[in-house]
């Protein structure tokens, strides 16, 4: 076979393309998943879509498989007494099941050039938590299921986002105490 430079170039380009996608999907791609979270000191048992019974201990979160569309959950206390039987609808690729109906906060963090964090926070709504006002307009959440966030409770915000041409934001869901700790550390008024 002759030495064909065009064929060599095509082969090198295809290999580089496959390697780039392989590296992206193995190391860089954001994983999409659903969590059941229990920030309380209690233990719960639950069944999702009449599947097998699972347990979630105090302070634990567990990855679960959900299908898009209608899903159901049965939640039992530590004595396996039924607490509630409910349904929820999954529309997006990540979500959080609030098994104990505790308080969570969905916060937006802004990124971009010439971002004036203090004036931006003052322009947003205030959120009242335990009688104290917190700037930034975090959304309070205590229902069974939500998927209105980008980062789940077990993920951190990106330190920097490259190639941001204007001011953009990413939302993250926090347990109540985690949000208060984040607010105290991140915002220094």
How does this model look, in words?
By secondary structure, the protein is an alpha+beta fold. Helices cover 22% and strands 35% of the residues. It has 3 helices and 13 strands, in the order H-E-E-E-E-E-E-E-E-H-E-E-E-E-E-H. The protein has helices at residues 5-28, 117-123, 176-186, and strands at residues 34-37, 44-48, 54-56, 61-64, 69-76, 82-90, 95-98, 104-111, 126-129, 132-135, 139-141, 145-146, 168-175. Strands 4-1-7-12 form a 4-stranded mixed sheet, with no helix packed on it. Strand 9 and strand 10 (132-135) form a beta hairpin. The longest helix is centred in the N-terminal third of the chain and has 24 residues, at 5-28. The model has no long low-confidence stretch (mean pLDDT 86).
DSSP strand tally: 13
Structural class: alpha+beta
- Oligomerization status of the protein chains: single chain
Q: How much is the radius of gyration in Å?
A: 22 Å
Report the sheet-strand fraction: 25-35%
The profile of the biggest β sheet is:
4 strands, mixed
Helix fraction?
Answer: 10-25%
SSE layout:
Layout (H helix, E strand, L loop, with lengths): L4 H24 L5 E4 L6 E5 L5 E3 L4 E4 L4 E8 L5 E9 L4 E4 L5 E8 L5 H7 L2 E4 L2 E4 L3 E3 L3 E2 L21 E8 H11 L3
Parallel strand pairs: 1-7
Antiparallel strand pairs: 1-4, 2-3, 2-5, 5-6, 7-12, 8-11, 8-13, 9-10
In a few lines, what is going on in this structure?
By secondary structure, the chain is of the alpha+beta class. Helix content is 22%, strand content 35%. Strand 9 and strand 10 form a beta hairpin.
